[in-house]
Amino acid sequence: MSVQIRPATVDDGPFLRAMLYEAAQWNTDWPLEPMDKVIANPITARYIEGWGRPGDAGVVAEVDGEPVGAAWYRLFDESAPGYGFVDASTPELSIAVARLHRRKGIGTALLRALIDRARADGHPALSLSVAPHNQSRMLYQREGFTKVGENRGAWTMRLDLRPH
Fold this sequence. Notes:
Blueprint: E1 3-7, H1 13-24, H2 35-40, H3 42-45, E2 57-63, E3 66-74, E4 92-97, H4 106-120, E5 125-130, H5 136-142, E6 146-151, E7 154-160
């Protein structure tokens, strides 16, 4: 299996929407809710509405030319924060891999590529929100994210991108 990571473009908006749904429905023990219902949540929708605005950046993983995962970030402000909001200068990341392609290292490759992009873009940090019992939390911790707070039972995690 050959995985290619490429920059996300405005044309990837529909795929990012599908990946946002996957991220929101991460727990396979939960009943699957319809995508339109999940994405209709105003806070969830913030992660993709108007994709391609200034400050948005992302990467897409492809296998044999087909997209199978994505990681992206976007800046929020205090008046309309995301779930893992830290501050207005810290982009919050979202990441998901299609169910059939999980546990193959694609999430790690996506996360590392997005971290590299954020550093290149000059961001001081990245943040995210994750349920403490979500196995992805261990990936984030391996890559250097640390817990900085809690919001509705989910951990807010932050990765400092400044040189030490």
